[in-house]
Design brief:
The complex is a heterodimer of chains A (300) and B (293).
Chain A (H helix, E strand, L loop, with lengths): L1 H52 L3 H4 L4 E2 L4 E2 L2 H30 L6 H15 L2 H10 L1 H9 L7 H37 L4 H12 L1 H17 L2 H6 L17 H11 L3 H30 L6
Antiparallel strand pairs in A: 1-2
Helix pairs in contact in A: 1-12, 3-7, 3-9, 4-7, 5-7, 7-8, 7-9, 9-12, 11-12
Chain B lengths: L2 H34 L5 H5 L4 H5 L10 H32 L2 H16 L2 H17 L9 H25 L3 H9 L4 H30 L2 H5 L19 H11 L3 H38 L1
Helix pairs in contact in B: 1-12, 4-7, 4-9, 4-11, 5-7, 6-7, 7-9, 8-9, 9-12, 11-12
Classes of the chains: A mainly alpha (300), B mainly alpha (293).
Amino acid sequence: MRSRRFAASRAIRYIARREIWIERVLFLAAGLSAAVVVAIFSMLTWFCLPLFTEHRLGAVLEWRWDPIHQHFGILPMLFTSCLLTIIALIVAFPLTIGICSLLHGVLRNGVLHRMLLFLLHFMTGIPTVIYGFVSVFVLVPLLRWVFEAGTGFSLLAAGLTLSVLILPTMVLVLHAELDQAEARYRLTAEALGFSPEQTIRTVLLPACRRALVVTVLLGMGRAVGDTLVSLMVAGNAAQVPHSIFDSVRTLTAHIALVLATDSHSMAYQSVFAAGLFLFLLMSCFQAFLRFWAKHGTVFK
Amino acid sequence: MKPRTMDLFWRTASWLSGLTVSASVMFLIGFLLWQGIHALSPALFFGDTAWQDALFGRKPVFEGIWPAVVGTLSLVVLASLIAVPIGVAAGIYLSEYATIRQCRWIGSLVDLLSATPSIVMGLFGFTLILLLRRTMLPNAQTGLMLAAACIALIVLPYLIATTRASLQGIPEESRLLGASLGLTKWQHIRHTLIPLSAKGILGGVVLAIGRAAEDTAVILMTGVMARAGMPRNLWDKFEALPFQVYYLAAEHRNAAELAQGFGTALVLLIVTAALFGFSYWIERQAARRWDSG
C-alpha cells in the first residue's frame, strides 16, 4: 500500500518535471530564433566598427567606386537601389490596384476569379532566378531592339522585372484587406445604387487606405532586398545612372559581386557597411509596419 | 468626368492590368517550356555517364546537372533538419506558452528575421567564417553546412508563422478537450493540438522546402561553386540548381550550354511549382476542415 502511493507520487513528480523541461526546450527554440537577429546585427556592426574607429566612414560614403584608385564609395549603389525600387513600384502599384478592382468588380465570382487568384499564388512560388533568367533572354533583347540604346541591361529592364516579382505579394495583401472591407460595405454600397467600379473607387479603396500603405511598404521591402534580378539584369556598372537605359548596380548586387571577386580589406568593409545599411533599412520598414498596423484599427 | 465614363475607364484599365500580368506569366512559363522541353533528357542530368553509375556515385558526372541536383537536395535536407524542429518548437511556444510580453518581443524579432534580405543572411554566414578564421579555425571555408544553416535561418520565420497560425486556428471547443480529460499542458498539446493542426504545419514545412530550394543569394555567399562536382563531405563546396541557372545565364559559352541552362531552369521551375502546388493544396484542405465544422 505504502509502496504504491510512493510510486504514484513519483510518477506525478516525473510528469511535472517533464512538463517543465519541455517548456524550457520550447522556450529555448523560440529564444534562439529571436537571438539570431541580434546576432546578425551585432556581427555586421562588429565588422563595420573599423570604419567608425579609424575615421574612414567618409571613404565609404562617397560617390565613386573605383577600387584600383582607392575609391570605395557605395553611395551610387544606394541611390540606384532607391531609384530601382521607385521604378518597380511605379509599374507595380497601378497594376495592383487594377487587378484588385478586377477581383472585386467584374470578376467577383466564377472560374476566372479563382484562376486569377491561383495564378497570383503561383507567381509567389516561382523562383527569383527564373524571373531573372527569362528576363535576360526576352526583356533585355527586346529593350535593346526597341529603344536601340545600350546593351539592354539597364535600370528599366531590372525595374520591369522587379515589378513582376513584387506584384503578387502586393496584390494578395491588398486583396485580403479588400475582402474584409467588402464584407462590411458591400450591402450599403449596393443599396445606394453604386456600380461595382464606383464601389471600389469611392468606398473600398478609401476604406483600405492604411492597407494601401502596408502594401506599398511590403513591395518596397521585397524590391530593396532582392538580389538576383538586379544582379542578372541591371548590368552591374557601379555608376550613378543618367537615364533609365544606363547600366546600374544595386547594394545587394554590390555585396554579391565584391565578395565573389575582390579581396581588398577596404572593399570588404564597404560591403559590410552596405549589409548593415540594408539590415537597418529593413528594420525601419518593419518598425513602421508594426506601428501602422497597431494604429490602423480605426475602422474596426 | 461623368461617373459612367469614369467607370468605363476604370474597368478597361483593370482588365488591361489583369491581362498584362496573366499574359506575362503565361509567356514566362510558355517560353521556358518551348525552349527547355527538348533539353529535358537523361543527358541533361547525367551527361555522358550512364545513369546507373551516376546514381550510385561510381563515376563522376562532368557534363550534366546531376551534381547540382544532389547539391540542392542535400541543402534542402540539411536546412530542414535544422529549421523544422526549431521552427515548429518556437511556433508551439509562441502560440501556447508565451506571455503577451514575450509574444510581442520574440514575435517582432522573428518578423525582423523574415524581413532580412537573403543576401544579408549570406553576408552573416560569411562573417561567421571570417570570425572562425580569426579565432579557432584558421582554415575554415564556406561550404555545404554553412549554406544549409543560413538557408535554415531564411525559412525559420515561415515555419514559425505557419505553426503559430494553424495552432491558433483551432476552434475554442477543441481546446476544452484537454482540460476535460485532465491532461497536462504538454499532453494536451501532444495528443490533441498537434494532431489537429498537423496539416497546417505540414503545409508550412513544404513551403519552407520550396523556399530552401529556390534561394540563390544566400548560397552565392556561402560556398556554392560552378563545376564543384559532388560534395564529398558536409564542409565541401557544392553545386546547386538555382546557382546553375544564374551561372549559365551569365556565362554560357555555346549553344549546348545555353540549352542546358534552359533545361535547368525548367527543372527548377517544375520542382518548385510541384512543391508549391502541394503546399497550396494542403493549405486549402486545412482551411476547409474548420469551415465544414
